[in-house]
Amino acid sequence: MTETHATIPSGAPVFPPGRYGRRREPGRRRPLLVRLLVAAVVAGLSLVAVQQYARYGDPDYDAEVITYTDITDTGVQVDFRVTVPEGGAAVCLLRARSHDGAEVGRAEVPVDAAPGERHLTVRHRVATTARPFIGEVVRCRPAG
């Protein structure tokens, strides 16, 4: 009698014992190495995140434009809110831009907070060389 496909059982092949060497057991091979690599990657990413937060996150000196009004050919009035450290001082850079995006005016505005105060509302008129389209706060930095 000859073997046919109908008589060979399906599934994993059967090898003669001891003929092809020892087969690996399925499971964890190097769990300590994998854990150390994962810990190193997490530590590296955490370090990068902390550095980026220190550089770009939650600044002590922050400003936002409330409104810009009274637009004329010679200037624009900018109302903005500044956050500084309690009782601190800042210098804010304001700029006015024309409709095509060109800068037509710039001003540095000193801001001083009273003791115990962190949020200030400031109004300043920026003189321009042409008719502005928008007034904005570029940045605020510590005074000094």
Automatic annotation (TrEMBL):
**Keyword Membrane in record:** yes
Show the segment(s) annotated as Disordered: 1-23
Q: Which InterPro entries match?
A: DUF4307
Q: Transmembrane segments in this chain: where?
A: 32-50
Source organism lineage? Bacteria, Bacillati, Actinomycetota, Actinomycetes, Micromonosporales
- Name used for this protein in its record: DUF4307 domain-containing protein
* Keyword annotations: Membrane, Transmembrane, Transmembrane helix
